[in-house]
Design brief:
By secondary structure, the protein is mostly helical. The chain is 80% helix and 0% strand. Helix 2 runs antiparallel to helix 4 and helix 3 runs antiparallel to helix 4.
Length: 131
Protein backbone atom coordinates (compact mmCIF):
# COMPACT_ATOMS: atom_id res chain seq x y z
CA UNK A 1 0.00 0.00 0.00
CA UNK A 2 1.37 3.38 -0.97
CA UNK A 3 0.82 5.12 2.34
CA UNK A 4 3.05 2.52 4.02
CA UNK A 5 5.72 2.50 1.33
CA UNK A 6 5.79 6.30 1.26
CA UNK A 7 6.35 6.47 5.01
CA UNK A 8 3.14 8.07 6.18
CA UNK A 9 1.27 4.95 7.32
CA UNK A 10 2.24 5.35 10.97
CA UNK A 11 0.37 8.62 11.19
CA UNK A 12 -2.82 6.66 10.48
CA UNK A 13 -2.14 3.40 12.27
CA UNK A 14 -1.00 4.76 15.64
CA UNK A 15 -3.91 7.18 16.27
CA UNK A 16 -6.34 4.53 15.06
CA UNK A 17 -4.96 1.89 17.42
CA UNK A 18 -4.84 4.30 20.37
CA UNK A 19 -8.56 5.05 19.96
CA UNK A 20 -9.28 1.48 20.99
CA UNK A 21 -8.30 2.29 24.58
CA UNK A 22 -11.79 3.79 24.96
CA UNK A 23 -13.24 0.32 24.36
CA UNK A 24 -12.22 -0.73 27.86
CA UNK A 25 -14.58 1.81 29.42
CA UNK A 26 -17.37 1.05 26.99
CA UNK A 27 -17.06 -2.65 27.79
CA UNK A 28 -16.92 -1.92 31.52
CA UNK A 29 -20.14 0.08 31.19
CA UNK A 30 -21.89 -2.87 29.56
CA UNK A 31 -20.66 -5.29 32.24
CA UNK A 32 -21.66 -2.97 35.09
CA UNK A 33 -25.18 -2.65 33.72
CA UNK A 34 -25.49 -6.44 33.38
CA UNK A 35 -24.36 -7.07 36.99
CA UNK A 36 -26.62 -4.39 38.44
CA UNK A 37 -24.10 -1.62 39.07
CA UNK A 38 -25.79 0.82 36.70
CA UNK A 39 -26.44 3.38 39.43
CA UNK A 40 -23.19 3.02 41.39
CA UNK A 41 -20.44 5.58 41.90
CA UNK A 42 -18.08 3.30 39.99
CA UNK A 43 -20.47 3.42 37.03
CA UNK A 44 -20.49 7.23 37.12
CA UNK A 45 -16.68 7.40 37.36
CA UNK A 46 -16.42 5.02 34.42
CA UNK A 47 -18.83 7.22 32.47
CA UNK A 48 -16.73 10.32 33.10
CA UNK A 49 -13.54 8.52 32.07
CA UNK A 50 -15.32 7.14 28.98
CA UNK A 51 -16.48 10.63 27.96
CA UNK A 52 -13.10 12.27 28.54
CA UNK A 53 -11.14 9.50 26.86
CA UNK A 54 -13.51 9.56 23.88
CA UNK A 55 -13.01 13.27 23.38
CA UNK A 56 -9.26 13.14 23.90
CA UNK A 57 -8.37 9.95 22.04
CA UNK A 58 -11.00 9.81 19.34
CA UNK A 59 -12.04 13.39 18.65
CA UNK A 60 -8.71 15.12 19.30
CA UNK A 61 -6.35 12.24 18.59
CA UNK A 62 -8.05 10.80 15.52
CA UNK A 63 -10.22 13.48 13.94
CA UNK A 64 -8.44 16.76 14.66
CA UNK A 65 -4.85 15.60 14.85
CA UNK A 66 -5.02 13.54 11.67
CA UNK A 67 -6.77 16.40 9.87
CA UNK A 68 -3.88 18.66 10.80
CA UNK A 69 -1.34 16.07 9.66
CA UNK A 70 -3.15 15.50 6.37
CA UNK A 71 -3.26 19.24 5.77
CA UNK A 72 0.42 19.63 6.58
CA UNK A 73 1.49 16.66 4.43
CA UNK A 74 -0.88 17.31 1.51
CA UNK A 75 1.97 18.06 -0.90
CA UNK A 76 3.68 14.74 -0.35
CA UNK A 77 0.46 12.69 -0.17
CA UNK A 78 -1.77 14.04 -2.95
CA UNK A 79 0.22 16.14 -5.36
CA UNK A 80 2.24 13.38 -7.01
CA UNK A 81 -0.18 11.69 -9.43
CA UNK A 82 2.66 10.46 -11.65
CA UNK A 83 3.52 7.45 -9.49
CA UNK A 84 -0.08 6.17 -9.53
CA UNK A 85 -0.74 6.49 -5.83
CA UNK A 86 -3.18 9.38 -5.94
CA UNK A 87 -6.27 7.13 -6.10
CA UNK A 88 -5.05 4.85 -3.31
CA UNK A 89 -4.13 7.81 -1.12
CA UNK A 90 -7.52 9.33 -1.84
CA UNK A 91 -9.21 6.11 -0.73
CA UNK A 92 -7.21 6.09 2.50
CA UNK A 93 -8.33 9.66 3.10
CA UNK A 94 -11.93 8.72 2.35
CA UNK A 95 -11.70 5.98 4.99
CA UNK A 96 -10.40 8.58 7.44
CA UNK A 97 -13.30 10.92 6.60
CA UNK A 98 -15.84 8.14 7.15
CA UNK A 99 -14.12 7.09 10.38
CA UNK A 100 -14.10 10.68 11.56
CA UNK A 101 -17.83 10.97 10.89
CA UNK A 102 -18.42 7.89 13.06
CA UNK A 103 -16.19 9.24 15.85
CA UNK A 104 -18.08 12.54 15.83
CA UNK A 105 -21.50 10.86 15.75
CA UNK A 106 -20.72 8.59 18.70
CA UNK A 107 -19.00 11.45 20.50
CA UNK A 108 -22.19 13.46 20.18
CA UNK A 109 -24.30 10.56 21.47
CA UNK A 110 -22.00 9.95 24.45
CA UNK A 111 -21.89 13.66 25.26
CA UNK A 112 -25.67 14.01 25.09
CA UNK A 113 -26.05 10.93 27.30
CA UNK A 114 -23.71 12.46 29.87
CA UNK A 115 -25.58 15.76 29.60
CA UNK A 116 -28.84 13.91 30.26
CA UNK A 117 -27.39 12.25 33.35
CA UNK A 118 -26.07 15.52 34.78
CA UNK A 119 -28.96 17.85 33.89
CA UNK A 120 -31.80 15.36 33.63
CA UNK A 121 -33.55 14.12 30.56
CA UNK A 122 -36.70 15.77 29.26
CA UNK A 123 -39.59 13.42 28.71
CA UNK A 124 -41.83 13.77 25.65
CA UNK A 125 -44.38 16.04 27.38
CA UNK A 126 -41.65 18.49 28.45
CA UNK A 127 -40.19 18.52 24.93
CA UNK A 128 -43.57 19.31 23.37
CA UNK A 129 -44.18 22.15 25.89
CA UNK A 130 -40.85 23.78 25.03
CA UNK A 131 -41.66 23.76 21.29
Amino acid sequence: VSFISQGWGDMFSLPTLITELTGVFIGARFVMIKVGLGSSVLFMVNGVIMLLSWWYLRIWGYVVRLALILYKEADSIYLNPVDGTLIRNGLVTLCWVLGSALQLMWGYKITMGAYGVVFGKKDKSEKSKSN
